[in-house]
Amino acid sequence: xxxxxxxxxxxxxxxxxxxxxxxxxxxxxxxxxxxxxxxxxxxxxxxxxxxxxxxxxxxxxxxxxxxxxxxxxxxxxxxxxxxxxxxxxxxxxxxxxxxxxxxxxxxxxxxxxxxxxxxxxxxxxxxxxxxxxxxxxxxxxxxxxxxxxxxxxxxxxxx
Length: 159
Fold this sequence. Notes:
It contains 7 helices and 7 strands.
C-alpha cells in the first residue's frame, strides 16, 4: 500500500493525473489504417486508443501494428493502408483502470506501458494516465521529500 504522504507528493493534483478524453488523440474502429498512420506520424505518437462509435474503448493502434498489417514476405503493400480498417488489426489486449482506480494498480501497469486508459464501468473512454505524469511526481519526491519530512532509519531487528 502506498502511504498518504508519498501519494500526496507523487500526485500533486489528482484532477490533473488523468488527461481527459477530449484532450487525447484517438482513432475509430472503422477508420482505415491510412488515417491511423497519418495521426501517428503527424502528431508523433507511438500508440493511440481506438474507440467505437459510442466512445467505448476497443483497443490500441501503433506504427508497428500498422506495418505488420501491410507487410508480406517480399514487400510492403502500401495500398493496403486504404483497405484495412483499424479494428481488423488493433491490439485488444491493453492496460486500463476504472475511474475509481487505486494508485498502486496504476503504477504497476505503467511499468510496462507509456500510458494506461481510464474507462468507466460500461467501458466508455474517460482519458489516459501517462508515465510522464507519474515521473513528474517521482521527480518531485526526489527533490522535496527530505525538505518536508525528517527521515530516520529504523533500527534493524536481529532475530
